[in-house]
Write a structure and sequence with these properties.
By secondary structure, this protein is an alpha+beta fold. It has two domains: 4-87, OB fold (Dihydrolipoamide Acetyltransferase, E2P) (Beta Barrel), CATH 2.40.50; 110-181, AF1531-like domain (DNA polymerase, domain 1), CATH 1.10.150.280. 34% of the residues lie in helices and 18% in strands. It contains six helices and seven strands. The protein has helices at 4-7, 93-109, 111-120, 139-151, 157-164, 169-181; strands spanning 14-21, 41-46, 52-57, 68-70, 79-85, 123-125, 128-129. The strands form two sheets. It has a five-stranded antiparallel beta sheet. The chain has a two-stranded antiparallel ribbon with strand order 6-7. β2 and β3 form a beta hairpin. It is elongated and about 55 Å long.
Length: 194
């Protein structure tokens, strides 16, 4: 049985804009919300859990891709309310095009979190390690990471790259997160299922 604090839902606090739709999106109707008008929508990716979201934008507010907006529970400046989570296939073509750059930016901004992942990643099954799920990291790099982190935990991207010779860990993690968001992966290391 799960503890009470484990059962608590976790929400995104901040998200990055993928696409701004000033006239809404065909097929999306805002219903059952008294006082809200249909209007500008925005597609977002969350900063903490990489959750894909769709939200109604406050009247008179214009957003552009890569803008960081508050989507938490408190009063929001740009967002009226969150319509809900969406799947990768519901993203617009423009949002899909912006997604890799935005994810890469989030990964770069969360260096400590990424380095911690490499320092603490464990085996998922007796025959598969979490590190092997990252594109470009096979058995050779996995063992290199494990040997190096046993000597001394990694401290930065540069330290990780220098000691393991892994080419561009940010690019590799970005690719993995995109695979998870697109639903191409059996195991989820960084995202939540829809």
């Amino acid at each position: 049985m799960k503890r009470e604090d484990e059962m608590e839902k976790r929400y995104e606090e901040y998200a990055y804009v993928l696409d701004f739709l000033p006239h809404g999106r065909p097929g999306v109707r805002i219903t059952g919300r008294a006082g809200y008008r249909a209007g500008a929508l925005v597609q977002l990716v969350g900063e903490d859990f990489f959750t894909l979201l769709e939200a109604l934008v406050k009247e008179g507010v214009t957003l552009k891709p890569h803008d960081r907006v508050y989507v938490g529970k408190e009063a929001r400046e740009e967002i009226t309310y969150i319509i809900g989570r969406i799947g990768y296939d519901e993203l617009t073509a423009a949002a899909k095009a912006e997604l890799p750059a935005v994810i890469s930016r989030i990964v770069l901004n969360r260096e400590k979190w990424v380095v911690n992942f490499f320092n603490t990643a464990q085996a998922i099954t007796p025959r598969m390690h979490a590190l092997e799920l990252i594109p470009g990291i096979g058995k050779k790099y996995m063992w290199q990471v494990i040997r190096e982190r046993e000597k001394k935990p990694f401290e930065s991207f540069e330290d990780l790259q220098r000691r393991t010779q892994i080419p561009n860990p940010v690019k590799l993690l970005t690719k993995r997160i995109l695979e998870e968001l697109a639903g191409e992966s059996k195991y989820r290391l960084f995202t939540r299922s829809r």
